[in-house]
Amino acid sequence: MAEAALEEGSAGLADAAGGALESFSSGLQSFLREQVAPVRLASHLAVLVVAAIVILVRRVDPPDWNFPLHTLPADVPLVQSATADTQLARRNPIVEVSDALQRAVLPFTRKSEEPAVASPSQQGAEGEPVAVTAPSRVLSIQVYEVMPADNLQKIAARYDLRPETILWANPKLESNPDLLWPGQELIIPPVDGVMHVVRTGDTLSILALKYKVSVEEIVEFPLNNLKSADSPISRGRQLIIPNGTKPYVARQVAMYRGPVPANAVRGSGNFAWPVSGHITQQFWHGHRAIDVGARAGAPIVAADSGYVIKASHGWNGGYGRMVMIDHGNGFVSLYAHMNTVYVRQGENVAKGEQLGTVGNTGRSTGPHLHFEIRQNGAARNPFYFLP
């Protein structure tokens, strides 16, 4: 009887303990549901508040701590700077260059699509402009030193000018826009237009008519220093004609005038690219051709079938080593600045046949192919005929 009672008491205690444990677990879960959820919510709200504060702080300028430098000991280093003035201030805080600590100035750069004036020291390895501090238009005549791989379009873009403006300001280039070489100095006008040296008989009205502008535009340009339309202009004086233009003068070249044999190969009229590379200069008023930059020694092929009327290894007026092909249908193609020439005058060539290799001969600032297409003697834009 005693043993049975003991067993029954143990079972009762176990049931009571189990019930208590189950009740405690249920209560704990209920507590966590009621208390932890608000804690998690509060933590999320705290993160959002901190993020909002950070954003506001970033939008607010820090205070301008402006206090005299002479209150600092002489051996306290200042913020590093590249200017001589701040280096002097570091050695002598009482110098009058600045009487207070200044906030650092962040450099402002322009994108490469927005040309900025860049000095030769700011050019890249290939003569390409690098990002520089955006300048305002300099109202003065400047001098630019030609860099390797330069051409008039690239130089004009650096100064936000039309290439014709630089062409007209440098008379030696007017008959040959490719007459460039590294180290050459070019005159850069401050605005688009024409720079004119006054000759005997010139008047403001004559110049306005010649360059297709108004007399007022010439008088009002500050660098001309003219008081009125009646101001005298002396011989030898240099004037800037803003927005002035000059007529195009066709470039004269010597070409083969001999007979073309009856059995000469004729072209199809469908041109193909003569070389693989990238366009470095397009067809424009002063450059009736396209330039294709490529590595020296790259193959140059005939853009269409035809008869070689010129294959020269000489200077050729700046063209350097060159080939000309008469396609027998009114078209002539020209390939210049070649390194080597594989064909001879009087040969027939098929479309795609190699004529030579890319070079840097004649007047050239880097290896490229100068390619022209002429139709009945007139220069045409090769882009109209190439795929």
Give an overview of the whole structure:
- The chain has 387 residues and is α+β, with helices and mostly antiparallel strands.
- Among the domains are: 64-100, no CATH class; 120-188, LysM domain (Membrane-bound Lytic Murein Transglycosylase D, Chain A), CATH 3.10.350.10; 193-242, LysM domain (Membrane-bound Lytic Murein Transglycosylase D, Chain A); 278-384, Glucose Permease (Domain IIA) (Distorted Sandwich), CATH 2.70.70.
- It has 7 helices and 14 strands.
- Strands 5, 6, 7, 8, 9, 10, 11, 12, 13 and 14 form a 10-stranded antiparallel β-sheet that branches. Strands 1-2 form a two-stranded antiparallel ribbon.
- The termini are far apart.
- The model is unreliable at 65-135 (pLDDT under 50).
Topology:
Layout: H1 2-59, H2 84-91, E1 142-145, H3 152-158, H4 163-169, H5 171-174, E2 185-188, E3 193-197, H6 204-211, H7 215-220, E4 238-242, E5 278-281, E6 290-293, E7 299-301, E8 306-312, E9 321-326, E10 331-341, E11 348-349, E12 354-358, E13 368-375, E14 378-380
Antiparallel strand pairs: 1-2, 3-4, 5-6, 6-13, 7-12, 8-9, 8-11, 9-10, 10-12, 10-13, 13-14
Helix pairs in contact: 3-4
Concise account of the structure shown:
The protein has 387 residues and is α+β, with helices and mostly antiparallel strands.
Mean pLDDT: 74
Assigned CATH architecture of one domain: Distorted Sandwich
How would a textbook summarize the main sheet?
Answer: 10 strands, antiparallel
Q: Which word captures the global form?
A: flat
Number of helices: 7
Tally of extended strands?
14
Distance between the termini: 113 Å
Topology pattern, helix = H, strand = E? HHEHHHEEHHEEEEEEEEEEE
CATH overall fold name of one domain: Glucose Permease (Domain IIA)
Broad CATH class of one domain: Mainly Beta
Structural class label: alpha+beta
State the CATH superfamily name of one domain: Glucose Permease (Domain IIA)
Radius of gyration: 39 Å
Q: What helical percentage do the residues reach?
A: 25-40%
**Percentage of residues in strands:** 15-25%
Uncertain stretches = 65-135
